[in-house]
Amino acid sequence: MIVLCILFFSLVPKKSLGAVDPYFQACSVPKTCGDGQAIRFPFYIQDKQNSSCGYPGFNLSCNNNGHPTILISNTNYTIHEIFFQNETLRVSNSAFSNPNSSCIPSINSISLPGGRFDLAPNQTNLVLFYNCNSSVHESWPSEFYPSCYGENDTVLALSGQDRKLISNVSMECKSSVRAPVDAYGGGIGKSLRNGFVLKWKASNCSICEDSGGNCGFDNIMYHFKCFCPDRPHAWNCPEIYPSCYGENDAVLALSGQDPKLISNGSMECKSSVLAPVEAYGGGIGKSLRNGFVLKWKASNCSICEDSGGNCGFDNIMYHFKCFCPDRPHAWNCPESVLPSNSTRYEACKPTNCGTDPNINFPFYVFGTETDRCGYPGLGIVCNRGKPVYRTLERQYVIQDIFYENQTFRLVDEEFSLIILAFLLLTSSPLNSLSLSSLPMMLNCFSLITARHHFLLVLRHL
Ligand SMILES: *[C@@H]1O[C@H](CO)[C@@H](O)[C@H](O)[C@H]1NC(C)=O
Ligand SMILES: *[C@@H]1O[C@H](CO)[C@@H](O)[C@H](O)[C@H]1NC(C)=O
Ligand SMILES: *[C@@H]1O[C@H](CO)[C@@H](O)[C@H](O)[C@H]1NC(C)=O
Ligand SMILES: *[C@@H]1O[C@H](CO)[C@@H](O)[C@H](O)[C@H]1NC(C)=O
Ligand SMILES: *[C@@H]1O[C@H](CO)[C@@H](O)[C@H](O)[C@H]1NC(C)=O
Ligand SMILES: *[C@@H]1O[C@H](CO)[C@@H](O)[C@H](O)[C@H]1NC(C)=O
Ligand SMILES: *[C@@H]1O[C@H](CO)[C@@H](O)[C@H](O)[C@H]1NC(C)=O
Ligand SMILES: *[C@@H]1O[C@H](CO)[C@@H](O)[C@H](O)[C@H]1NC(C)=O
Ligand SMILES: *[C@@H]1O[C@H](CO)[C@@H](O)[C@H](O)[C@H]1NC(C)=O
Ligand SMILES: *[C@@H]1O[C@H](CO)[C@@H](O)[C@H](O)[C@H]1NC(C)=O
Ligand SMILES: *[C@@H]1O[C@H](CO)[C@@H](O)[C@H](O)[C@H]1NC(C)=O
Ligand SMILES: *[C@@H]1O[C@H](CO)[C@@H](O)[C@H](O)[C@H]1NC(C)=O
């Protein structure tokens, strides 16, 4: 409890709402050199991104072909692909980049800056020999390739596996260079252009990212930083967010996983609500905007639909109906129906609010004379092209409807409008955020994917 209190007083942002930390803002958008690769922490494009957004030595340039390049021991290497999940990247010496040329340029051996980059496992070496004695030429005629310097110049390329052979040949040539390759196949030119894989070492960004921050580096303290909407933090963003209620209000957001922490938090704060979320990742704002998933229970529509009918509901008999071209039937349309004027049939065709998702049984759109096209309690309204589900106190935007497994994703309308990672809460809704405010859902829905719950706690100082 005491810990929570201290956290509370020290972390509540002093600045007024809406003033977003400039570092958070500067590092929030990944950039690209033009080839579509997103450049983000620990890398940054020197001319396009603030150096605080990446690690020292991970500065990149863009070449004329729109590819990022990195300078390692004074040689440009073209970056083909960055695998953030396992912290590797595939690069090749930019001198090999011209796919036109069949000649081999003269290059320097790579020397990796200690501590930052290592060769990934399973890389092999090619050894390139320059200015070799003609006797060697006679022994390995097919391993010689034209050099890019002078028409009589040739380069001998051998696999680096056979050390004895390499050392023999070395004595007969003026210089040699080791060129790592990921795989030796498709010819030496292709292998060299395909390059090799490096593993990098930098702080793991995911704890910061998962809390809604942008990873970066403090060049003065020479240490990793997590840039959060309020200010930079050491490793991750705090779980306390400003509320819309007033400058001195704050909302403490906790994952509902830890009952002890929750009960401590409850005692320290004035009120709390449970907000269901499908997954906790990318910060609380993102999690809330992503919403939660409900499963509905209603009659299976497919037997009616498959027979050519539109599903609906008879509010008087309080029972499922299958609206067929001729008239309503109990479950499905008879095989030969004569089309007549069945307004119900016409009215209950699938529709939408202007954009996805499609509105079909058991949902229906209010106010279009189609209140018998869906289940009671599943009427929705269209608001700015989006289907909105209203309860007595709250409005939820329906993001997706999965008819195949009877689930749909809801996002509290207020959260769906938040642009920043801030949690913006107005004064009233707190007590009504919980699922119990969905009275109509109580008997026909069950919450299926709320693996985590946030405790949103509003405290008035
Ligand atoms: C990086 O961004 C911060 C915050 O906006 C700014 O103070 C700093 O001057 C920037 N640095 C560079 C190199 O642009
Ligand atoms: C990265 O920064 C270093 C030091 O400022 C600089 O020498 C180098 O040219 C930069 N690398 C790239 C690829 O621009
Ligand atoms: C590396 O590539 C950049 C961008 O193409 C260029 O400006 C720079 O001069 C190159 N540096 C070297 C050492 O080749
Ligand atoms: C980074 O940390 C997360 C969570 O601790 C972990 O799942 C992930 O594998 C780590 N990434 C790397 C590249 O080590
Ligand atoms: C890294 O991940 C990529 C993409 O999943 C994979 O192709 C590659 O083999 C992995 N590299 C290593 C060294 O595990
Ligand atoms: C490749 O060769 C073609 C025709 O010879 C030429 O038009 C093109 O500019 C060359 N491309 C490069 C990258 O050198
Ligand atoms: C390296 O090669 C071995 C044998 O081919 C393989 O078992 C292993 O998975 C490879 N390691 C990586 C990281 O690709
Ligand atoms: C090249 O080989 C020949 C015969 O082995 C030898 O006489 C000559 O000195 C060698 N030249 C060089 C530069 O090693
Ligand atoms: C290449 O070798 C041939 C035959 O030895 C010679 O005539 C020619 O001048 C040489 N060219 C150059 C550029 O050295
Ligand atoms: C190395 O050179 C010696 C002397 O020229 C030769 O006898 C030997 O077979 C060579 N070894 C290899 C692996 O080519
Ligand atoms: C359907 O209604 C229209 C106008 O209400 C009428 O002209 C038409 O004859 C009707 N058709 C049938 C098959 O009843
Ligand atoms: C329902 O179906 C959608 C789309 O196929 C899928 O993404 C979702 O994971 C499914 N949900 C459940 C609970 O199976």
TrEMBL record:
Start and end residues of each Wall-associated receptor kinase galacturonan-binding domain: 27-92, 348-412
Reactions listed under catalytic activity: L-seryl-[protein] + ATP = O-phospho-L-seryl-[protein] + ADP + H(+); L-threonyl-[protein] + ATP = O-phospho-L-threonyl-[protein] + ADP + H(+)
Keyword annotations of the record: Glycoprotein, Signal
Membrane topology, from the record: Single-pass membrane protein
GO molecular function per UniProt: polysaccharide binding; protein serine/threonine kinase activity
Major localisation: membrane
A cellular component annotation (GO) from this entry: membrane
EC class name: transferase
Name by which UniProt lists this protein: non-specific serine/threonine protein kinase
Residue span, Wall-associated receptor kinase C-terminal domain: 163-231, 263-327
Subcellular location(s) of the protein: Membrane
Signal peptide range in chain numbering: 1-18
Enzyme Commission designation: 2.7.11.1
Species assigned in the record: Quercus lobata (Valley oak)
